[in-house]
Amino acid sequence: MTYLDRRNVQERPEDLLARAKKGDADARNQLILDYTPFVLKVASQKVGRYLRPESDEEVTVALLAFNEAIDAYDQERGSFISFSQTVIQRRLVDYFRQRQQRQHEVPLSDFERDDDGSHVETGPLEQAAKSAWQVREEEEARRQEIEEYARALRKYGIGWGDLVKAAPKHRDSRDRAIQLARAAVRRPEYQQGLLDRGEIPVQALVKEFGVSRRLIERHRKYILAVAVLLSHDLPYLQQYVLERG
């Protein structure tokens, strides 16, 4: 079947994605074309204003990020939509930071040369200042993520105290619950029901992992909380939970 023949048959996004990852340029172009409205929406929401594809550089950054997401995606990262949204948002943040530095900051290298132009090693004070700035930036990012996550959990009647009580006591149990949460957001139809109504695809998880319905019900609140975490742009919290269980 040629590319023109395929255009007459509506291909599923997951099929286009699979072919694009294997190097099919036509599939990649079609995927980008189909998802351009989604990319524009994500970018506009992140920027806080309507973006014009013909004149706003942020659109180019977002489309390049979506193209990057095609190559980087795997099913362990949850749904492709959520993953690509995260990549787009992160690349826009990187773009904003770089632009701000170019416009408003004097390069540190200008202060690291002697009068004769020779390079001077950055002193401990300058290094400490850089480190302190980075720490403050990360702390602020974590604080904002915690607030966003708390708001997301409240939709399902889950508070921090509930989450602490719901967490499985043993590491193996937590790892299994996280594995189930990953699977719950892997398919768009599962993720949609989960985010809209807090529904966990119990029967599908029982069939896929061979676990008992009772086990899923016992850890339902924790599985739901982790699935919500995976569905939002919360990289610091995701790293903490997924790496440490």
Summarize the structure.
With 245 residues, the chain is mainly alpha-helical.
Protein model, in words:
By secondary structure, the protein is an all-alpha fold. 72% of the residues lie in helices and 0% in strands. Helix 3 (25-47) packs across helix 5 (80-104). It has helices at residues 3-7, 13-21, 25-47, 57-72, 80-104, 124-154, 160-166, 171-186, 188-197, 202-209, 213-218, 220-230, 235-244. The chain is globular and about 55 Å long.
Oligomer: single chain
**Number of spatially distinct domains:** 2
**What is the terminal separation in angstroms?**
46 Å
Secondary structure category: mainly alpha
The pLDDT mean sits at 78
**Unreliably modeled segments:** 1-8, 106-123
Number of strands: 0
Helix count equals 13
Fraction of helical residues = over 70%
**What share of residues are in beta strands?**
under 5%
Element pattern in H and E: HHHHHHHHHHHHH
SSE topology sketch:
Elements: H1 3-7, H2 13-21, H3 25-47, H4 57-72, H5 80-104, H6 124-154, H7 160-166, H8 171-186, H9 188-197, H10 202-209, H11 213-218, H12 220-230, H13 235-244
Helix pairs in contact: 2-3, 3-4, 3-5, 4-5, 8-12
Provide keyphrases for this structure.
Rna Polymerase Sigma Factor, Chain: A; mainly alpha; 13 helices
